[in-house]
Amino acid sequence: MVSIEEAQGVILQHTARLPMEEVPLVEGLGRVLARDILSPFDVPLTDNSAMDGYAFSFHFVHGDRLPVSGFLAAGHPQFDAVPPGCAVKIMTGAPIPPGCDTVVPIEETESLAGEIRLTAGPRQGSHIRRRGEDVKASEQVVAQGKIVRPQEIAMLASLGMTTMPVFAKPTAAILATGDELLPLGQTPHPGQIVNSNSIAIAAQLKEAGATPVDFGIAPDDFEATKRAIREALATADLLITTGGVSVGDKDYVKVAIEELGGRILFWKVNMKPGKPVAFAVLDRKPIFALPGNPVAAMVGFELFVRPALLKMRGCSRVMRPVIKARLQEPLANKGERPTLVRALVSFQEDEPRVAVAGNQGSANILSMVRSNGLLKLPPAVALAAGDVAEVILLDGGREGQG
User: Fold this and answer.
1) Residue 8: its H or E element
2) Among 376, 356, 352, 375, which Cα is nearest to 367's?
3) What are the residues facing 55 on neighbouring strands?
4) C-alpha distances in Å from residue 13, one per residue of 8, 9, 307, 390
5) pTM of the predicted model, to two decimals?
6) Can you give the pLDDT at residue 400?
7) At a CB cut-off of 8 Å and minimum separation 6, what does 340 contact?
8) DSSP state of 28
9) Phi/psi zone of residue 306: left (φ > 0), alpha (ψ -120 to 50 degrees), beta?
10) Residue 69 parent element (H or E)
11) Which member of 109, 212, 229, 330 lies 3.0 to 4.6 Å from 116 by CB, making a disulfide possible if both were Cys?
12) Measured distance CA(131)–CA(112) in Å, rounded
């Protein structure tokens, strides 16, 4: 039996980043940039006006009146030099013409016949955006490994790009196992369970930036399980199974993987919930065999599948953030395994506080609904209210950024 950290290390060691592909800018939202982006030119390309106003040379201002010698709109070619002592009316974004070093807003002038009167004292160099003040030519504007947001898309668009290089999006096959499982929408009878695992895993996959493909439910039959695993893995970058991985008479997943030529890299992790987790590689593709209990499956996904997906996507950080929070109630672990307690983190006077989020049974999904973190409770420990514990944050979107 391996520790959580050892299991994560094995998984990341046997998980490869997916290849690069070019996608249209908007389709790159939420994807991970596959190479550094350097600006091909200065932004802006030339000194330009930051205001609708009047441009002139500060050195030649004598008094408060200036004759107006022309008009310069944005998007027009470079204007001729402005005669000393004159001003030119200029629109926002228009290039600063030769002979000018200052702009005053229209609001600080009074328009007269053929001239303007300055109603406020101008400051030399004011209201001019300087060439390259946003970005210099050859400057790195977005780094490889960055998760693309709307602001990165805006930056690349301003450089004239129409596509961006991103790492491919992982496709993950989901296979539930067990005769007791029913598809969604059916009413269970005693001894039957609605297959919530597959839809929960699909949601976790989408939240982690992967594409889920549901391969349904495999019955408790060895040949059927083996066939379903082979078919599912053939169409995806990785496979996630739920159930059938413990030591029951009809737990066929682990043996089926081995018969197909897969290599089990670990089985059983020293944790609660989710001890019967297996990780294997078949045809160079990772297989995650998660427990059948819903909470154990979701926790296993968070700890083991999610980091692998983020690595495959090209993220530079793959682990959820961990914080220290003060317990709001006593908490004990009498067992011999580290326990991941579904917990609710809140902030009081800017200090994180944490409380247990309901019943901790591995089949109690409501505790996951009420939680936003997993409190790491070591074995054989008793903590008092006010003690500090480590909590893995499940919400907040603080990870994955480069």
Assistant:
1) helix 4-13
2) 356
3) 88, 103
4) 9, 6, 11, 25
5) 0.86
6) 43
7) 271, 272, 273, 274, 299, 303, 374, 375, 376, 377, 392
8) G
9) alpha
10) strand 65-72
11) 109
12) 32
Structure confidence by residue, pLDDT tens digits, 275-329: 999 999 999 999 999 999 999 999 999 999 999 999 999 998 999 999 999 999 9
At 395 the pLDDT is: 85
Tokens in use for 187?
Answer: 């009413």
Residue 39: C-alpha distances to residues 20, 21, 160 (Å): 20, 20, 10
Amino acid sitting at position 154 = A
3-class DSSP state of 240: strand
DSSP label at residue 303: I
Q: Return all residues near 21 (Cβ < 8 A) that are at least 6 apart.
A: 34, 165, 166, 167, 168
Residue 121, token pair as written in the block: 């004292």
Residue 184 DSSP label: T
User: Strand 388-393 to strand 193-194: parallel, antiparallel, or no bridges (unpaired)?
Assistant: unpaired
pLDDT at 250 over 80: no
Map tokens 């008092």 to a residue.
Answer: 384
Amino acid at 391: V
- DSSP, collapsed to helix, strand or coil, labels residue 182 as strand
- How far apart are the C-alpha atoms of 287 and 177, rounded to whole Å? 14
Nearest to 294 by CA among 241, 361, 341, 362: 362
The 3-state DSSP class for residue 332 equals: strand
Encoded tokens for 292:
């059948």
- CB-side neighbour CA atoms (13 Å) of 107: 2
pLDDT digits (tens, 9 = 90+) for 53-104: 999 999 999 999 999 999 999 988 767 899 999 999 999 999 999 999 999 9
Among 165, 143, 172, 147, CA closest to 15: 172
Q: What is the pLDDT of residues 167-178, one digit of tens each?
A: 999 999 999 999
